[in-house]
């Protein structure tokens, strides 16, 4: 009997082995995916476990940690006198974050509107890569930029009203950092709004301004808000800029011209100091990190949920 | 004033794609001219603010270039950090360190990330509980992407550096933890030959840091050959041996020796301690969500008809993935991977947590458990100092770092062009 050459030369494999191999492969891939859950669990277990050592310490009380307005973990020589109240660090973080958001959110959104509604392809060809380059700049570089340029120019224009290290210059640098992220995510959201909506608005006699602000932006609002929340959590967790430019004194004020240590800034200072594993100061690091994690995780989770729940799907 | 605005609206050509009807047919009331004025102003605002980012980037590059250009010399690339002599300090060890850490990071994060993306995109389950698990994993990955990198640094500190203290704590300047392979412990004893010539004696008891030689013992030479170590006792009145061969294998009676360990490049111990292995693995946690999301997007972009054709030919799911989806998605995955590596090279916070802020290191890593310095950590250290010399060095190092990043980004663009299917 003449069989085709392909069938003669082919090495047939038992289907049974194939099925086993297939299952093994799928199991391996599933393991990779489950590992990501493992990372989350690992973070939570690690943070809670080590913060527990902090809360257990006789120098610390949970209510003092949550409500205290003095943080002198590294400054005080005597552990008896050290104050562990999270609010100075929280207020420092908030000052930097609010300044960053005042810059990143409006500018990012307007840049996104410009890119998606107005810009000609020639302008896009310049603006898009510029934003991508800014997004790719390492944060330590932006921190150096804040110390080298932003802070001296603030001092120059205010006639010395700012500290050398201050919340404003750190906030401006963090704002520059977050701007590309806000603009690219918002632009995606604006881009998803169908053309027919815009044409309808123009047909009713709207100007480009009214079309963008009253029609397109509301239609893309869920995407824009989740982009804002993402930028917010990114700004809260930003480390190298504040470690370089915000200062190392934890202050509980609203004055953006003063030094302000943020939560991440404290973690870096603690790591640089010589406190060994096991001291209260060392464990306070984990309590601060836990607070940071809860805030950022909550932010991103809410952003995700808003996006999933309220996103308008245009088919 | 009204005429001025309306003329400015008329001759200003609105963007063609916006479908703006043009000024010709608009009814010229006060209201409409005011609205047109707003629109015009808004357009100007858009241009101004968008231009701002270009200006900021320009100011950043120019100011750093201005500050650092005088230090862009071969010294910078060849020398290492120097505390006493900032004028000749350089960043060579940090360049090597960054390369090693990114190598570890790529080797661990890319397979894991791509595997996860394949699982999430290609093996979507049908049953309800599995579907919920699937979307939970998806949500979890999106959230992991928002976790601050310094928290990953702390996770790496607990997980890789200390391994939750299961294997004992790593001590400074001591061999500790559970050592697996690649290390030999010796006592180092001065032989009679003088001139710093030493003999190595294998260390049996690690807790004992020094020994005193009173009787002939077994020793090894630098090639690992065993030999009998002879003793020469000055008190006995015997003359010192004159043959150099013998003198190399003879030591004075009562001589002490300190412990010394010799490591091979593959030296491995648990926990990893402050090693570049731990730092690389920590960085891979940081970029894992980025790799997963980018790979997922690339896989989503593969046309379903390609997969259907493969199934139609009788391929199994994995065969389809292996031979159809994955090659088609490869350009996107590679681009995402390179961008993630760019992020990893610039990341300082987690490395600072895992390895500490010390930068005094003259060379790249000697073994898997060796400490390293990376470029961002060195820049952070230099930028935080008061002296102008270090400030300039920081700027010059930033120029080098940005050049490396630019190179990687161009590689990403090149790959995207080159590997595009169809």
TrEMBL record, chain A:
Domain of life: Bacteria
Spans traversing the lipid bilayer: 26-48, 98-119, 131-150, 170-190, 211-232, 283-306
Residue span(s) of domain ABC transmembrane type-1: 90-303
GO BP term, example: phosphate ion transport
PROSITE patterns to which the protein is assigned, alphabetical: ABC_TM1
Pfam family, one: BPD_transp_1
GO CC list: plasma membrane
CDD domains tied to this protein: TM_PBP2
Membrane disposition: Multi-pass membrane protein
InterPro entries, alphabetized: MetI-like, MetI-like_sf, Phosphate_PstC
PANTHER family: PHOSPHATE TRANSPORT SYSTEM PERMEASE (PTHR42727:SF1), PHOSPHATE TRANSPORT SYSTEM PERMEASE PROTEIN (PTHR42727)
Summary of the function given for this chain in its UniProt record: Part of the binding-protein-dependent transport system for phosphate; probably responsible for the translocation of the substrate across the membrane.
Name the record gives this protein: Phosphate transport system permease protein
TrEMBL record, chain B:
Transmembrane segments: 41-66, 95-120, 141-167, 275-294, 393-415
A Gene Ontology cellular-component term: plasma membrane
UniProt entry tagged with the keyword Amino-acid biosynthesis: no
Residue stretches of biased makeup (Basic and acidic residues): 240-251
Main location: membrane
SUPFAM superfamilies the UniProt entry points to: MetI-like
Chain spans, region Disordered: 1-25, 234-256
Subcellular location: Cell membrane
Alphabetical keyword list: Membrane, Transmembrane, Transmembrane helix, Transport
Domain (ABC transmembrane type-1): residue spans on this chain: 95-411
Membrane topology: Multi-pass membrane protein
Keyword Transmembrane helix on entry: yes
PROSITE patterns: ABC_TM1
Biased composition (Polar residues): 1-10
Record-level GO BP terms: transmembrane transport
Record-linked InterPro entries: MetI-like, MetI-like_sf
PANTHER family documented for this protein: PHOSPHATE TRANSPORT SYSTEM PERMEASE PROTEIN PSTA, PHOSPHATE TRANSPORT SYSTEM PERMEASE PROTEIN PSTA-RELATED
Family the UniProt entry places it in: Belongs to the binding-protein-dependent transport system permease family.
Name listed for the protein in its UniProt record: Phosphate ABC transporter permease
């Amino acid at each position: 009997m003449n069989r085709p050459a392909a069938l003669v030369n082919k090495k047939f494999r038992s289907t049974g082995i194939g099925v086993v191999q297939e299952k093994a492969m799928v199991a391996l891939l599933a393991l990779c995916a489950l590992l990501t859950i493992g990372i989350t669990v690992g973070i939570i277990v690690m943070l809670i476990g080590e913060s527990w050592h902090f809360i257990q310490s006789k120098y610390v009380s949970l209510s003092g940690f949550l409500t205290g307005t003095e943080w002198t973990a590294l400054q005080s020589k005597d552990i008896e006198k050290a104050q562990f109240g999270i609010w100075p660090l929280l207020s420092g973080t908030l000052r930097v974050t609010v300044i960053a958001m005042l810059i990143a959110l409006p500018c990012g959104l307007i840049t996104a509107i410009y890119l998606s509604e107005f810009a000609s392809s020639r302008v896009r060809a310049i603006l898009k890569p510029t934003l991508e380059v800014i997004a790719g700049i390492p944060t330590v570089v932006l921190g150096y930029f804040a110390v080298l340029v932003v802070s001296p120019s603030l001092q120059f224009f205010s006639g010395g009203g700012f500290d050398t290290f201050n919340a404003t210059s750190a906030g401006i640098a963090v704002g520059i950092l977050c701007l590309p992220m806000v603009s690219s995510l918002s632009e995606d959201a604006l881009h998803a709004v169908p053309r027919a909506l815009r044409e309808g608005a123009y047909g009713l006699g709207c100007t480009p301004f009214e079309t963008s602000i009253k029609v397109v932006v509301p239609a893309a609002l869920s995407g824009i808000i989740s982009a804002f929340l993402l930028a917010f959590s990114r700004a809260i967790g930003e480390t190298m800029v504040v470690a370089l430019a915000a200062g190392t004194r934890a202050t509980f004020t609203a004055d953006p011209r003063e030094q302000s240590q943020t939560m991440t800034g404290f973690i870096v200072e603690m790591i640089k100091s010589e406190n060994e594993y096991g001291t209260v100061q060392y464990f306070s690091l984990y309590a601060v990190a836990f607070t940071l994690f809860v805030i950022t995780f909550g932010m991103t989770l809410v952003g995700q949920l808003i996006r999933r729940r309220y996103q308008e799907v245009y088919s | 004033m009204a005429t001025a605005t309306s003329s400015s609206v008329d001759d200003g050509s609105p963007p063609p794609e916006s479908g703006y009807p043009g000024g010709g047919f608009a009814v010229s009331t006060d209201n409409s001219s005011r609205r047109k004025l707003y629109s015009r102003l808004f357009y100007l605002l858009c241009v101004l603010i968008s231009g701002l980012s270009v200006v900021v980037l320009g100011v950043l590059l120019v100011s750093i270039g201005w500050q650092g250009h005088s230090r862009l010399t071969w010294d910078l690339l060849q020398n290492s950090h120097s505390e006493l002599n900032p004028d000749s300090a350089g960043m060579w060890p940090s360049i090597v360190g960054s390369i090693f850490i990114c190598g570890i990071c790529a080797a661990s994060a890319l397979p894991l990330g791509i595997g996860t993306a394949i699982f999430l995109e290609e093996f979507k389950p049908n049953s309800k509980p599995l579907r919920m698990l699937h979307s939970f994993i998806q949500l979890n990955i999106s959230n992991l992407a928002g976790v601050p990198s310094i928290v990953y640094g702390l996770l790496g500190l607990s997980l890789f550096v200390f391994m939750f203290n299961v294997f004992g704590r790593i001590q400074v300047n001591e061999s500790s933890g559970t050592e697996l392979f690649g290390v030999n412990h010796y006592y180092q004893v001065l032989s009679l030959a003088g001139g710093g010539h030493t003999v190595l004696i294998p260390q049996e008891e690690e807790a004992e840091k020094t020994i005193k030689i009173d009787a002939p013992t077994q020793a090894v030479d630098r090639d690992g050959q065993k030999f009998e170590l002879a003793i020469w006792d000055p008190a006995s009145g015997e003359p010192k041996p004159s043959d150099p061969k013998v003198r190399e294998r003879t030591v004075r009676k009562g001589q002490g020796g300190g412990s010394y360990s010799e490591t091979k490049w593959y030296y491995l111990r648990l926990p990893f301690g402050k090693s570049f292995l731990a730092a690389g693995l920590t960085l891979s946690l940081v970029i894992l969500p980025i790799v997963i999301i980018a790979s997922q997007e690339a896989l989503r972009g593969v046309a379903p008809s390609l997969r259907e054709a493969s199934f139609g030919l009788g391929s199994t799911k994995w065969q389809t993935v292996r031979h159809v989806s994955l090659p088609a998605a490869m350009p996107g995955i590679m681009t995402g991977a390179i961008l993630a590596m760019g992020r990893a090279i610039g990341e300082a916070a987690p490395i600072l947590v895992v390895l500490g802020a010390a930068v005094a290191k003259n060379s790249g890593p000697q073994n898997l458990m060796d400490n390293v310095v990376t470029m961002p950590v060195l820049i952070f250290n230099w930028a935080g100092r008061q002296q102008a010399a270090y400030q300039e060095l920081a700027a010059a190092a930033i120029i080098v770092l940005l050049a490396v990043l630019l190179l990687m980004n161009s590689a990403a663009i090149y790959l995207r062009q080159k590997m595009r299917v169809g």
